[in-house]
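tokens incoming
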């Protein structure tokens, strides 16, 4: 047999008055800022740390405000042995640079040069770098970029360059 359906003892009643729309709030017009002004000011007090991809950004972009601690072939394994220069600093290690300035934002770009190492070793060294930077710049926002893909011909040369493997490393970075 089917269960007996019973009506609720009391039904909701209709509201006695129709709801009214709220009055629009009058606000002062906000000044407009161009994207160029945002880009110019947003990258003040910013540091980019990384490999040749960051070097390319430094050379080819119009971002002149940030500092760049980057080098071709730089990895999470060898960054501490590098002494580098930029237009804003000369012959400094990363430790010296972080001690000499305060950054609002720090971007990291690593992983492609390290892809042939074991994932756990790479991630442990990356975590050590992030911990080191965070200790030196505790108020900075840290932005860790994922690993860029390579061309299909390069990906076919080694299993550690396949899109799936690089994506898995990026997920571990995340």
């Amino acid at each position: 047999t089917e269960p007996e359906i019973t009506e609720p003892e009391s039904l909701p009643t209709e509201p006695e008055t129709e709801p009214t729309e709220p009055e629009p709030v009058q606000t002062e017009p906000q000044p407009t800022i161009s994207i160029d002004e945002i880009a110019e000011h947003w990258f003040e007090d910013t540091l980019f740390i990384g490999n040749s991809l960051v070097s390319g950004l430094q050379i080819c972009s119009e971002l002149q405000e940030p500092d760049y601690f980057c080098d071709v072939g730089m990895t999470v394994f060898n960054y501490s042995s590098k002494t580098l220069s930029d237009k804003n600093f000369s012959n400094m290690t990363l430790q010296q640079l972080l001690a000499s300035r305060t950054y609002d934002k720090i971007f990291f770009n690593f992983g492609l040069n390290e892809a042939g190492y074991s994932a756990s070793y790479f991630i442990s060294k990356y975590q050590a770098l992030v911990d080191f930077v965070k200790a030196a710049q505790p108020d900075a926002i840290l932005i860790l970029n994922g690993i860029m893909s390579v061309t299909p011909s390069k990906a076919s040369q080694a299993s550690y360059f396949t899109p799936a493997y690089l994506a898995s490393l990026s997920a571990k970075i995340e």
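note: The radius of gyration is 26 Å.
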